[in-house]
Structures are given as C-alpha cells and as structure tokens.
Write a structure and sequence with these properties.
It is a single chain. The protein is α/β, with parallel strands linked by helices. About 35% of the residues lie in helices and about 20% in strands. Helix 4 (about 105-115) links the parallel strand 5 and strand 6 (about 130-135).
Length: about 450
C-alpha cells in the first residue's frame, strides 16, 4: 500500500459516487459550437467564459448553491498535459468528478494529483482541499504510487536542514525501507574511514552531524540488478570556499538527488517490480570548522584514484565518487545516480529540463521515449572524452574543479565516469530538484525530476 501516512499527505482523491459535483473540462471550440451540457453552456456564455487554459468558472444552481464548474483547457490541450493540476488549487473544498474532458483518465488524474501538492508541515492551519473522484478506467494504484514517489521527493527537499540533516535523512531512509520490508545498513562517522569511504568522510567531517553512507536492499537476487545512488548533501555552505549568502538560500535542496532516488525506489517497491534493488545515499553536510577539508588538499578515493581539492564547493562529486565505486563493485545491470551537481547544467538547459549522461546509447533512446510518454522532460548531453583532459591534475590523478569553468556539467560527469568501470549501463542525472516558479502541476519548491520517466523505463525492460 502506498505510504501516504509516511509523507504526511492525504489522498487528493475521493471514492464517493453520486454526491460529487461535475467539472466540464472544455476547449474554446466546445463553447463556440455548444457541444457541452446546456446549463453549463448557458452559464459560460453569460459569463463570457472563453475556456482559456487553466481558467475556472463556478456554476451556480437555480437556488444559488454550487452546481459544478467549467475548466478551460485552451485551444491545444496537448501542450499542457498536466493542466488539470490547476483544478486542485482553484476549486473550493468538496468532492468533484470530471463530467467531460478530451484527456485520458490517467493523465487527468496524475495532473490533478501533482497539482494538489502543498508543503504545509510548518503551517498552523491546513485549509480543506477539493477531492476528485477516480474514473473507473484509470489505473488508480499506479497513479497513487507515482504521486507518493513525487510527494516524497518534494517533501524531503522542502524540509529545512534543521529538520533534514544527515541523521534525519537516515530516519526517512529507514522509514521507507521499513514500510517495504527492505534491509538497511549504515556506516557512520570514523567508521567510514575504516571501511574505505574516505571522500564521504572528508566532505562531512566538519559538521556537527556525522557523515554516513546509507545502503538499502530490496527484492530478490537473480532478478535484474538495479542500483540507485543519490547525492545527499543536506546543506552546502561551500566549505572553506564559502558561498555568498544568496548562494546558500536554497542549499537545503542539495540533497535533491537522494530525495529523487528515494521517490523512484518507492515507486519500484510499491509496484513490486521483479528487480534486485539497491539504494545508496552518502549523507553529509558540507560545513565549516577547524577540521574542514581545504583547497589544495589531496585525498585518495575508495577506488584508489587521488583527487586534488581545487574547490571545496565541488563536494558532491566527491561523495558520489566513493558511493559509485561501492555500487560498481557489485556490478549491477543498471546503475543510476542523481545529483543536484552543477550550475552549468542549469545554464545550459534551465531548471525544468535535467540533462543526463550515459555510456549506453540504447538506454538513452529508450529513456527518451519514456520521457516523452510520461511528459517528464530529460535531455541527453554527451560524455565528450575530448574534455577528459580538463579533469586531470598535475600532482594527483584528478581535480574536483577544473579551471576555466567551460563545459562544467560534462566535466563533472566525466569525473564520475572514472569511478564506474564494471557496470554495463550507467547514467548520471544532473537535476535541479526545484521549481522556481509555480506551474499547473507544482507549486514553487522541491521537485521530482526524471523519476517518472525512469520508473516507466524500468517497468518496460522487465
């Protein structure tokens, strides 16, 4: 069962039948030609309702009560596949059903559900919200698990670091594992050095909360082996190469990679997919204290490669290096890492289109198809080996921050690639993990990116 209780959410849906109010989802053509309910049509024309995308017009009954609503889809509904998310924030509280809509039931429900999200953990009042009846032809269970995965990622990212440090992230990790009866092991503090995770320890040692490596296993051995790795930097000051205050404002989201792989893991486990699943999260806080790592330091990684620290604010690739090396030792069939890694990725593609890098062309093609099918945008960028020389150091094997700043997303991916040598298919996702502006299907705040497409892809290869 989908753990709505775990992510402190109630379902945006209702199971009531005859007591729900109708929603007429229409295009301008429906209003012009009169091909909708006569009462709704009469009210629409009297009110000058033009069915512009996302507009809502409430319909009264003859005695002045609420009788339903008109919802504008615009002239090209396919351009905004999750437009119904606006309904969740526009309708008054109550139980509703879609009377007419030129949309598939699954897309309609998913859009509504995504738009229903609100992060109200810290609000003293939680206003009542409208609920939508699930059509009989919808795959309700799959819609709910996708929403739960997205809501989990959003909730984790939105939670401020005073309540979502490495220890609390471990708690969320364990709670998800317990819900699906997965096995968990955790390596904490100086034990990271004893068990050869030096870069995870290096980045996290200056924090009041000890760094740790979280490891979850679920499924059955012998099935396709899939491993997810998520960057879990719960806050990033930049270290001794400190960020300006403006650069720290959103750094609670620097564990967005971890949040997203946990959301994806939820979908996989809830669907009971026949996989041998592993989830690895290096959880740290990149803080400043007397024992913080310094520019110019050189450290040996789990894989044995030495890394020169040319910028302490390029810490995410360091903890991922050890985590990916660890995952690669197990030789999974598919290894995915997700990280809020570079500003260069945002400069190239903006906040809404995450780039991914992979060594497998077939995987890239299949994922591109899944991305289009799910309207979960992704774009492949090249692992251009001509730039590999940029990550070399004069006195160590690698630098964590190439000079010049050119092709920063690619050089970061090439750095990570050095730590994956046994796995046949590896993909790195450089996500933003944040919606900077309100959209139909999401408010401003933490965001799940790529995980619905990955879930579709993984289901398709089993």
């Amino acid at each position: 069962m989908v753990p709505y209780h775990y992510i402190e959410r109630q379902s945006p849906f209702t199971s009531k039948g005859g007591t729900t109010l109708p929603i007429f989802a229409v295009t301008p053509a429906h209003v012009e030609t009169g091909t909708i309910d006569p009462i709704a049509l009469d009210w629409a024309r009297k009110a000058g309702f033009r069915a512009e995308a996302g507009t809502v017009l409430l319909i009264p009954t003859e005695d002045g009560h609420l009788g339903g609503a008109l919802f504008g889809l615009g002239a090209n509904p396919s351009e905004s596949p999750f437009l119904t998310g606006k309904l969740a924030r526009s309708l008054p509280a109550g139980d509703w059903h879609i009377e007419t809509a030129p949309l598939t039931a699954n897309r309609l429900l998913l859009g509504y559900g995504l738009g229903s999200y609100s992060f109200d953990r810290y609000r003293s009042e939680r206003p009542a919200a409208p609920k939508l009846m699930i059509p009989q032809d919808a795959d309700a269970a799959d819609i709910k698990r996708q929403l739960a995965g997205v809501f989990l990622a959003r909730d984790l990212i939105n939670t401020p670091t005073n309540d979502m440090g490495p220890a609390e992230l471990e708690g969320a990790f364990r709670a998800l594992a317990a819900h699906y009866k997965a096995e968990v092991s955790v390596i904490t503090g100086d034990e990271l050095l004893a068990q050869n995770f030096p870069l995870v320890h290096t980045v996290g040692r200056a924090s009041a909360q000890a760094p740790r490596l979280l490891d979850m296993r679920w499924g059955k051995k012998g099935h396709k082996k899939i491993t997810l790795v998520g960057k879990g930097v719960c806050f990033d000051t930049g270290g001794l190469d400190i960020k300006p205050s403006s650069g720290m404002l959103l750094m609670k989201k620097d564990m967005g990679g971890a949040a997203n792989v946990l959301g994806l893991a939820l979908m996989i486990m809830d669907a009971k997919l026949k996989v041998d699943l592993r989830v690895i999260v290096p959880a740290v806080e990149n803080s400043i204290s007397g024992n913080a790592f310094r520019p110019g330091d050189i450290y040996r990684s789990r894989k044995g490669l030495t890394v020169q620290i040319d910028n302490t604010d390029a810490e995410g690739r360091l903890i991922l290096a050890d985590a990916l090396s660890y995952a690669d030792e197990d030789e999974p069939d598919l290894l995915i890492d997700m990280a809020t890694l570079t500003g260069a990725a945002r400069v190239a593609l903006g906040p809404d289109l995450p780039p991914f890098f992979t060594n497998d062309d077939h995987f890239a093609l299949d994922l591109a198809e899944a991305s289009l099918e799910t309207d979960d945008p992704l774009w492949r960028l090249p692992l251009h080996m001509g730039y590999d020389k940029l990550i070399r150091s004069q006195i160590a094997d690698l630098t964590n921050a190439p000079a010049g700043g050119m092709a920063g997303a690619i050089t970061a991916a090439l750095f990570l690639k050095r730590f994956v040598t046994k796995t046949p298919t590896w993909a790195h996702f450089d996500i933003y993990g944040w919606a900077p502006a309100e959209r139909a299907h999401s408010p401003v705040g933490g965001e799940a990116q790529g995980i619905r497409a990955l879930y579709r892809h993984i289901r398709g290869i089993l």
